Amino acid sequence: MGLRWLFLLGFSILLSSCSAESKNFAQETGPAAFLRDFDQAAALSKKTNKPIFAFFQEVPG
């Protein structure tokens, strides 16, 4: 029984350390560099000759 509690304690400590947030990015975007302005993205797309990847997501709240 004691080994089970020790395992659960260790697992919960490990899990809580993995949930740290990055301070430099918006919460919903994560570490990827997304542009939020379409005109800016279109200009960069034309300049670099790369397509625009649009990500649509409803953020509750």
Structure in words:
- This protein has two helices and no strands.
- It is an all-alpha fold and 61 residues long.
- The chain has one domain.
- The longest helix has 17 residues.
- The radius of gyration is 20 Å and the shape is elongated.
Topology:
Elements: H1 2-18, H2 38-48
| Helicity, as a percent range | 40-55%
Number of helices: 2
Structural class: mainly alpha
As for the number of domains, it is 1
Number of strands: 0
Describe the sheet with the most strands. none
Mean pLDDT metric: 78
Could you give the distance between the termini?
43 Å
The poorly predicted ranges are none
- Characterize the overall form: elongated
Order of helices and strands: HH
Strand content: under 5%
Radius of gyration (Å): 20 Å
What's the short story on this structure?
With 61 residues, this protein is an all-alpha fold. It contains two helices and no strands. It is elongated and about 65 Å long.
Task: Supply the key terms.
single chain; 61 residues; mainly alpha; 0% strand; signal
